[in-house]
Amino acid sequence: MADLFANLWLWFHKVFVAQFDGWILLGFVAQAAFTMRFLIQWIASERAGRSVVPVMFWIFSVVGGFLLFIYALERQDPVFIAGQGLGLIIYFRNLWLIANERKAMTKVG
């Protein structure tokens, strides 16, 4: 059992400590920004008493997705690059639709 813990500790050190650099820090910051969108959505839904997707959800999606995309490019991970790259298109499209809707509402009102 001690050998298992020793191996686990070596793995943890290699993954989280030995290779830590600015890119890893960027990855963690990006993931935190990306995760914030769920917290924002949850709080907005709880306040409204129904499922709500606020604009800040999409803004955090763009910020986190863009930083994760840069991180994925640095890591040269094709799956991560494709996933974040395609996600960014959806996030920007949603912000575009929201902006168009608001613009149309100001013309009517």
How would you describe this protein?
The protein is mainly α and 109 residues long. Helices cover 88% and strands 0% of the residues. It has four helices and no strands. It has helices at 2-18, 22-48, 55-75, 78-108. Helix 2 (22-48) runs antiparallel to helix 3. The model has no long low-confidence stretch (mean pLDDT 92).
**What share of residues is helical?**
over 70%
How would you spell out the order of helices and strands?
A: HHHH
Number of strands: 0
Low-confidence region ranges: none
Averaged pLDDT: 92
Helices and strands: which structural class? mainly alpha
Number of helices in the DSSP assignment = 4
Question: In angstroms, what separates the terminal alpha carbons?
Answer: 70 Å
Main beta-sheet annotation: none
Give the overall shape, derived from the CA principal axes.
Answer: elongated
Provide the fold topology.
Layout: H1 2-18, H2 22-48, H3 55-75, H4 78-108
Helix pairs in contact: 2-3, 3-4
Short description:
The chain has helices at residues 2-18, 22-48, 55-75, 78-108.
